[in-house]
Design brief:
- The chain has a domain of 106 residues: Roll (Thiol Ester Dehydrase, Chain A).
- Strands 1-3-4-5-2 form a 5-stranded antiparallel sheet, covered by helices on one side.
- Helix content is 23%, strand content 33%.
- By secondary structure, the protein is of the alpha+beta class.
Length: 154
């Protein structure tokens, strides 16, 4: 966490804001290691089998892309905010295969901010979460619902 940055509270967020979270490149070794443990489908773990698949080569598990996004989200925004967790996400889409060596960028756009009706110290923020490849094509999107604390100091 960068201490010189202002901590973000619910009060600081409004629809239309975009936060760029950073970038990461996945190697074939990282893809195979992750998938061997969590998603051992042949096109994720076996280069020979993957070359015969509809993808023509090894691709990352969508779940690895989601985990990579989460790391960038935590490092790029959540660790400097008053986020209180998430009741869930909506509309998860894997739109394009992620290939080894591809540099991915992550961002979030604030879609909606609303106060909690039952707990006055917090509210819910809807975020459109995007992972894009080096051609700026979206490879994964979803909507996250995140609870944020209000700023008590105003």
């Amino acid at each position: 966490m960068e201490s010189h940055r202002k901590k973000l509270f619910l009060d600081d967020l409004e629809a239309g804001q975009v936060y760029h979270l950073g970038r990461q490149t996945l190697s074939e070794e990282e893809i195979i290691t992750f998938a061997t443990r969590y998603d051992p489908q042949p096109f994720h773990i076996d280069p020979d089998a993957a070359s015969q698949s509809i993808y023509g080569g090894v691709i990352a598990s969508g779940w690895q892309t989601a985990c990579m996004f989460t790391r960038l989200f935590v490092d790029g925004l959540l660790n400097r905010s008053a986020a209180m967790g998430s009741p869930g996400l909506d509309e998860l889409r894997w739109l394009k295969p992620v290939r080894p060596g591809e540099t991915l960028t992550a961002s979030v756009e604030v879609l909606d901010v609303r106060d909690s009706r039952s707990k006055p110290d917090r509210g819910l923020v809807k975020l459109r979460c995007i992972v894009a490849d080096s051609s700026d094509d979206e490879v994964m999107t979803f909507v996250a619902n995140v609870l944020f604390q209000k700023n008590e100091t105003g």
